[in-house]
Amino acid sequence: MGENGVGKNYYPQGGAAAAAMEVSSVEHGQAGGSKCYDDDGRLKRTGTMWTASAHIITAVIGSGVLSLAWAIGQLGWVAGPAVMLLFSLVTYYTSSLLSDCYRYGDETTGKRNYTYMDAVNANLSGIKVQLCGFLQYANIVGVAIGYTIAASISMLAIKRANCFHVKGHVNPCHISSTPYMVIFGVAQIFFSQIPDFDQISWLSILAAIMSFTYSTIGLGLGIVQVVANKGVKGSLTGISIGAVTPIDKVWRSLQAFGDIAFAYSYSLILIEIQDTIRAPPPSEAKVMRRATLVSVATTTLFYMLCGCMGYAAFGDDAPGNLLTGFGFYEPFWLLDIANAAIVVHLVGAYQVYCQPLFAFVEKWAQQRWPKSGFITGEIQVPLVSSGFKLNLFRLTWRSAFVVATTVVSMLLPFFNDVVGFLGAIGFWPPAPSPG
Q1: 212: Cβ–Cβ under 8 A, 6 or more apart, which residues?
Q2: Where is the Amino acid transporter transmembrane domain (predicted)?
């Protein structure tokens, strides 16, 4: 994964299409081209601070919010909110550093970096580039595994909620999560064959609706439970030694740190979001810093409400996943809606987060074997209204990736543990020093 092998225009808007636009822009002259194209020859960007904030909020508010009540339960009323605030400040600071890396050199006229790895290549060299590339793609694999586990647990929760409603809460309703992981994996094999899945315009809107749906339901149920309890549960220091051993207390506290970190992580796609912002003035970096401030503040407020209300409702017994840990049993249909929203959100989120890895491997293969029909050839598949081009290498490689992540997920069906681990590796400082 050297400088010529990682992240160089591996998104759909790069390569030949970008070159063609640049030639077109030059041919029509600077004055005419500036109306339709930016300074790099690509179609004029139209994003604003508000659209960038919306993209960030959509990316950040995910299934990690459901573990925050448990995380605060391990740390208590003092350390829990304080750690959440600390991570929000660290996220804002590192995101501001990373946004300065969008252009190499001058922040208004320097060369644009279209992806995270483009920014790494422009500012670092040698083993540092390889390390950043490895961490980014390893994190993507981890996110794919985590999303598979979370989606299967939510599907399982729908089945169990209905079982509890019919047979009573004392019935164990033991059901295996393996079939649901297989179902999710089959769906991902199908969706992974759609080219440029991350560019589908309605995807962010749907993901945002689903995120706010299940998060709001969790918040509402927490408020109702607090009212039913006629008071707030919890303690200043969280779960006490005695209820757990000292070693377990330390381990749970560190895991809570990981859960909170996972809930804030979005560095993998920050540069891609910034690349949607219209050209200066003001500079994209200034707009992105303001967007980060707005989105992180909004997210932190929402996290505080969900996490603290969940802890207030259940105290030290807060479940690892607020909507699947069955602190709530009724109304079962509302739990079904919330968990269905989680599944729909994760189906799309899985694909969006995996696109950089998919594109990197496919570009590397095309550069390595440019004359191979298996890698570069496409088969026209007739559909209802238009043709669909199927690439055999894409079919094989992406299907193998989905199968591998699904199998690993079957071996690691522990939502909280996986979330904490992903948060730990994903919050590694993401920002290369701007040049």
Answers
A1: 61
A2: 45-429
**Strands in 201-301 per DSSP E:** none
As given in the structure block, the two tokens for residue 165 are: 């409603």
What would the DSSP string read from start to end of 7-21? SSS-STTSHHHHHHH
pLDDT at 76: 92
SS3 assignment, position 326: coil
Chain position carrying tokens 């840990």: 325
Tokens 């899985």 label which residue?
A: 350
The runs of H, that is alpha helices, within 265-391 are 270-274, 284-314, 332-368, 373-376
DSSP character for 327?
S
Report helix, strand or coil for 381: strand
Length of the chain: 435
Q: Which candidate, 336, 401, 279, places its Cα nearest to that of 161?
A: 336
**Residue 47 in tokens:** 């994003």
Cβ(307)–Cβ(179) under 8 Å?
Answer: no
Using an 8 Å Cβ cutoff, are 357 and 141 in contact? yes
CA distances from 190 to 26, 183, 358, 378, 395 (A): 40, 11, 14, 17, 9
The pTM of this model reads 0.76
Q: Where are the domains of the chain?
A: 15-426
- Domain 15-426: which CATH class? mainly alpha
Q: Pairing state of beta strands 379-382 and 387-390?
A: antiparallel
According to DSSP H, which parts of 34-167 are helical? 49-60, 68-99, 116-123, 127-167
Closest CA to 4 of 376, 364, 397: 364
pLDDT, average across residues 350-363: 83
- What is the tens place of the pLDDT at every residue in 149-204? 888 888 988 888 888 888 877 777 778 888 999 999 999 998 888 776 655 667 76
Nearest CA to 275 out of 259, 293, 294, 288 is that of 288
How far is 416 from 17, CA to CA, in rounded Å? 43
Q: Hunting for tokens 């400082």 — which residue is that?
A: 429
Q: Strand 103-104 to strand 111-112: parallel, antiparallel, or no bridges (unpaired)?
A: antiparallel
d(CA 423, CA 143): 10
> From residue 356, how far is each of 98, 328, 401 by CA, in Å?
18, 38, 13
